[in-house]
Amino acid sequence: MRERDSLSPEEREQRSKQIAERLLTDPLVKRHQTFFIYCSYRSEVATNDLIKGFLQAEKIVAVPLCLPEQAGMQAVTITDATRDLCCGYRSIPEPIPSIARKQTLTPSQIDVAIIPGVVFDRSGHRLGYGGGYYDRFLGGLAPQAVRIGLAFSCQLVHLLPALPHDIPMDVVITEEELLRWPRLEKVLNSSVQ
């Protein structure tokens, strides 16, 4: 995380734009309708351009609402990233309470989940922030979703130790490359049937 934090705001912005463009032009975006995407926080890959791009493409966009008392999350749909978000759990942007009560999305409706991480490896494994929120959400509630990790190239390592409860990514996108793994084809083929 130190390397990510050491990037200047200008570098993070430029690299985030490259990552957003790479994802927005990928065939996965055209193929799917419902996207669950994290709201960027601190030095993470910025997701503002992605959220706007999905909304402009008339996609359904849901963002996480953290439920710390349950160690879980809900997916809440938004239509405007500026108007519909406020400072939430640990100061991470989240849906405003009035939206969260009315616009919860069933996790089984999610086609693509876009996930942050501290580090990703070349096998698709991810090291998160230690709470297990995304692993529980993706593994138990939204196993059908295509899992895309966003990272700067400095967050990509050769190999991470993985535990059985760690949910691997199907795709990892950096400003320099796009990595895909075999589960992606299985998920895409099952969604066609």
UniProtKB/TrEMBL annotation:
It holds the Pfam family 5-FTHF_cyc-lig. It catalyses: (6S)-5-formyl-5,6,7,8-tetrahydrofolate + ATP = (6R)-5,10-methenyltetrahydrofolate + ADP + phosphate. Its cofactor is Mg(2+). Substrate binds at E44. SUPFAM superfamilies: NagB/RpiA/CoA transferase-like (SSF100950). ATP binds at R126, L127, G128, Y129, G130, G131, G132, Y133, Y134. This is 5-formyltetrahydrofolate cyclo-ligase. The lineage of its organism: Bacteria, Pseudomonadati, Thermodesulfobacteriota, Desulfobulbia, Desulfobulbales. Belongs to the 5-formyltetrahydrofolate cyclo-ligase family. It comes from the Bacteria. InterPro entries: FTHF_cligase (IPR002698), FTHF_cligase-like_sf (IPR024185), NagB/RpiA_transferase-like (IPR037171). Its EC number is 6.3.3.2. PANTHER family: 5-FORMYLTETRAHYDROFOLATE CYCLO-LIGASE, ATPASE INHIBITOR/5-FORMYLTETRAHYDROFOLATE CYCLO-LIGASE. GO terms for molecular function: 5-formyltetrahydrofolate cyclo-ligase activity; ATP binding; metal ion binding. Keywords: ATP-binding, Ligase, Magnesium, Metal-binding, Nucleotide-binding. The keyword Glycosyltransferase does not apply. It is an enzyme of class 6 (ligase).
